[in-house]
Amino acid sequence: MTPYLEVIRITPTESFTVSAHGYPYHTVRWHFHPEYEIHLVTETSGHYFVGDNIGEFRPNNLIMTGPNLPHNWVSDVPVGVTIPRRCAFLQFNQNFIESCLRTFPEFGDFKVLLEESCRGILFSPACGAIVRPLMIELVTATGVRRVSLFLQVIEELMHATHRSQLASANYLPDPSAYMSAGMNRALHYVREHLAGKLDEKMLANVAGVTVGGFSRAFKRHTGMTFVRFVNRLRIYTACQLLKSEPASVTEICYQVGFNNVSNFNRQFFAQKGMSPSKFRALSEQNKDAPMAA
């Protein structure tokens, strides 16, 4: 089965991104992305799929995946049951970690984990239990504390002795098999020009295909229409800015590419179930409160 591309946007105000979500959730599907990911399950059991490996998971399941390695976690949850918060995960790109390696020689041992993560790394439940409170706090942490927690997570992974690689040795992630070079160019253009005008005709030209061909390929690779994808990415970016920037809601509206506040508010409510102002207020309240596991 061809994996979906998940576009991860790391804003200019952060070096890496940390998130948490429940189950079911729209990104819970067979997918890949060029970023490294450290993924911790906090609740439920089920099966994980990493490359060509299938295994069982329980709370404190901790896995690191490398660039473009397809993965997914499917919980054994009865139909109609919703889990508010199932996992927490940290994602960072190649440029960030390479700059860390250049700046801090002490990161040298982390190169081994980066190489092993190309096949996926399963850490012991004991390591997952140690990392769990760090990951939970990271979701809402800001400033220097956020960086400190990131370093603590990396330190625990570097010192973990009981770990195993998941995908078989001959399994090689090949994003070119999932997407054409043209589609990669188009998605890169979307990430770099999110605040500008974006339409399918423009992106079809970037990809070097017809508008109809672009529309079909885009939905096949991302699992959604172009308009829905762009709106989702813009709202995600707006959420990061609302949590970390003092700019007004109106300013953020235009920063992420919406051309009027009413449409921004409507799209935000449709995705988040609340207004941008309420989201910011709740984020402020939650900054000093521990996240429930």
How many helices? The count is 12
How would a textbook summarize the main sheet? 6 strands, antiparallel
CATH topology of the largest domain: Jelly Rolls
Query: Number of folding domains?
Result: 2
How confident overall, as mean pLDDT?
88
Q: Between the first and last Cα atoms, what is the distance in angstroms?
A: 32 Å
Uncertain runs = 288-293
Structural class: alpha+beta
CATH superfamily of the largest domain: Jelly Rolls
Shape, principal axes of CA atoms: globular
Beta-strand percent range? 15-25%
- What is the CATH C level class of the largest domain, in words? Mainly Beta
Number of strands: 11
Strand order of the largest sheet: 2-9-4-7-10-11
How would you describe this structure to a colleague?
The model is unreliable at 288-293 (pLDDT under 50). Helices cover 45% and strands 18% of the residues. The relative contact order is 0.13. It folds into 2 domains: 4-165, Jelly Rolls (Sandwich), CATH 2.60.120.10; 180-285, Arc Repressor Mutant, subunit A, CATH 1.10.10. Strand 5 and strand 6 (53-57) form a beta hairpin. The strands form 3 sheets. The protein has a 6-stranded antiparallel β-sheet with strand order 2-9-4-7-10-11. Strands 6-5-8 form a 3-stranded antiparallel β-sheet, with no helix packed on it. It is α+β, with helices and mostly antiparallel strands.
Record the SSE blueprint:
Elements: E1 4-5, E2 17-23, E3 31-32, E4 36-41, E5 46-50, E6 53-57, E7 62-65, E8 71-75, E9 83-92, H1 94-103, H2 110-116, E10 121-123, H3 125-138, H4 143-159, E11 163-165, H5 175-178, H6 181-192, H7 200-207, H8 211-222, H9 226-244, H10 249-255, H11 261-272, H12 276-286
Parallel strand pairs: 1-3
Antiparallel strand pairs: 2-9, 4-7, 4-9, 5-6, 5-8, 7-10, 10-11
Helix pairs in contact: 3-4, 6-7, 7-8, 9-12
